[in-house]
TLR2
Amino acid sequence: MEIESNAFARYQLLQYISLHGNHLTTIQCSSFNGLTRLTTLDLSNNQLNISTEHTSDVFNNLISLHNLDISRNFNSFDYYYPFLGNLVNLQFLAMDLIHNSDFQKAGLPNLINLEKLVFDYCYANDLQNRTFTYLSRNIKELQFRNCHHIKSAEAGVLMPLKKLKTLRIHKSAMSLSDALMILHPFENKEMETIEFIRMNSGYREPKVFASPEAVILTSEMMRHLQKICVSNLILAECGIVDFKPKSLLYFDRPECLKKVVLSGNRFPMLNKYQELLPLTHKLVNLTLFDYSYNPLSYAGEIQYIHNDQPFIDINTRLLCDQISLYNDDRNALEKKSTKYIDRSYYTATQEYVDKSQAAEFRLKLPDNLHTLRLSHFLRKLEFQGKILILTAPNLQYLDISYYNADWFPIIQFNGPNKLRFINFSGTKSSNFLPPTSIPELLNTTNVKMEYARLGHMFHKYPNVLNFIPSVEVLDISNNNIWFLPENAFSNNTEIQNLSISYNLLDDIPKAVLSLSNLQLLDIRNNFIQSINETVHKWLEQQNLKYGNTFQLFLKGNRLRCTCDTLEFVKWITKTNISLDKPKRDYWCTLRNGTYMTISEVMQKYHELFIDCNSGHWLRIGIALLTSFVVLTIPVALVVNFRWQLAYWIYRRFRLVIEERMKSKSKYDIYISYGDQSLNWTVNTLIHKLENSWKMITCLDDRDILGGEICSDAIADSISNSRNVIFVIDDSFQDRIWGKFEIQRAKYEKYAGNLQQIIIIKKHNITVQDFPFELRQIWDDVIFIEWRENEDSVGWDKLRIALFQKVL
């Protein structure tokens, strides 16, 4: 593609042009003529031969240009830079670092206002002391991205950049030792940010499998960095596996450090607390520390926290996810020049107090520390039986998501805490919830608990969320929640935004109706088929209460458009609630199993639902006819046969009374079982039936007294039982009286003296191996296949079978 001459001549007031990623190959000399007010031009990620002679004239007339991005157009080692010396107002420049760069011929010394220079891709093999000799002396920020070709750097390469305050190097095959060495010119100076990410000689070409080499920090490697007063320090994904004494955080001016990121490495900081302890009290201005992604290896993309969003705003639509420290979006000019949050580790005063088998682990965080992140943390912790007493006067953001340790300490706060946001996602809830390891967080307004296995916890502990009474934004998505107790949010009445998406709910839980402050409900990707009238009336009340600003997210559910859900379909098309699907175009399932959007359903309303009303009137007619017949025939019979009926009722009433008097059984259940199931029957089944369900059971070897004829005793016991349970396994065929018990149960069932015959299948026995006598009465029994370690479904089936007659 080509940009023709005078292509923008009609737009003389234009100030911003982005031509990023448009497969451009040619730009004419006069393509940008007339754009005297243009301040930003993005030509990145094209196929321009930008080093051709005439390209220099392209930019000559852009006298007001402040931002220029020509990166990702140099795809050869033989290219050279166009002349940019006339752009005297240029403040931001993004380009590639090509082989044998000649910045003098490119006119870069003339760019006296240039403050930020970004090398988006590097073709150079090494950085020599003379490489940046002819750069502008006023550059304050220098960035290197995707510099896989750079293998080495000389110590004085940055010597010409006297005013440099920010140095960022991302994805380089340069060794960390060389990267730390080039900091030599900044000793005893102040710098804003030093950011080294994926700085390791093990990282080669991006398409080749990268494996970082093991790096051990030494005081010699850190000697230049230790003499710099740096505010933000990032040494992430650099392959650090250990550090020697007087290296890590051993700075001449530790009070300068405000934010530190050490994520994506593999060194055990906690094991060296004795060395770091004397330094921690000097980190008086530390505000952020990130020591995340600390497993032996991590295959996914590491996420960082953006400096502009240290907390999640409770007024935002949804809980924000962590933002990558460097976004691969190449439109660099559309991105602000941001600084990045680095999480400060606990500057701790640590103290062990031995108390027989337990100990208190005291941790005092710096007064200014407000953000602590220990996400994706994997290691064995010696915390078992210990209490972590935390002094955190200003800690507001705590991220312990995907914290996979063998044991979670019991946490107590020494004094008040100001925690506003806490992230438990991916951390097994049973580690820190009842029996509780987390104290009541009175000031926490934002809580994220994705992938925390809460579904099982709600079943055991309905009030599991009581420890966050002030929460306003709560995310409990992806937790396999199929059931929410009605009192699940009884102590969380301040909730405004609630996300229960990606769970197993088949209806909006009644617990939600207790949240009078709710303004956003996210129930996407559940199994909801419709919303009943009670719930959508409550939703309308909430929407009216908050001025038609209520938000409901429904995408990904299994909505149904049938006669039974007709009122819901009508409501979804008329409601003023803000939904997450434009024009209410949710997919729903019709009666015939086909799919259609709700808007299409409403267009074909009469065609699809014509039978709904006819069925309604048909049911009314049938009901009226039935009522007439039911009322007329009995009246006629009563009038004509009143004396005969009176005598018949008297006789039947007498027989029923006599039968009821005889039906008082001695046992609720007679149980027959094989030898393999003896232990389970006695210790589990009998315990549940007698102790929990208060039923009277009969076992032949426990309740039938000696001295009687065995067959008569068994027959008498079965006839005096309301139900019979056969526990069938491989050994049941060997039971001496098994066939007799089956025949007797069959007799009592057909005689009407027995309520249920229940078969519980244990172990791996197949139905074909059942006794022949059982298969003869298969239609008259209730069959329950009992899986190993069954703890809910089997019991529910058994309870229904035993109590349905009573109910």
